[in-house]
Amino acid sequence: MGHKSRIALILFMIGFTGFIFGAIANIIYSRALPILVEIFPQIFSSEWAAWGLIGAILAIICCLIYAYLL
What pTM was computed for the model? Predict the structure, then answer.
């Protein structure tokens, strides 16, 4: 496989992964977050805590993907 086509494939995979992460974040926000607020009302009542957890999970997943591509 040529060098340029490999770069294009990697960029496509990163873009597709970002699309999937966005869809997962939307599902977490619209479906799972109300359930978690009922179970843990004090922790998740502050909006920054929930988004901080989502951001941490996404950052870990991105680092794993980056390490896998190297």
Answer: 0.49
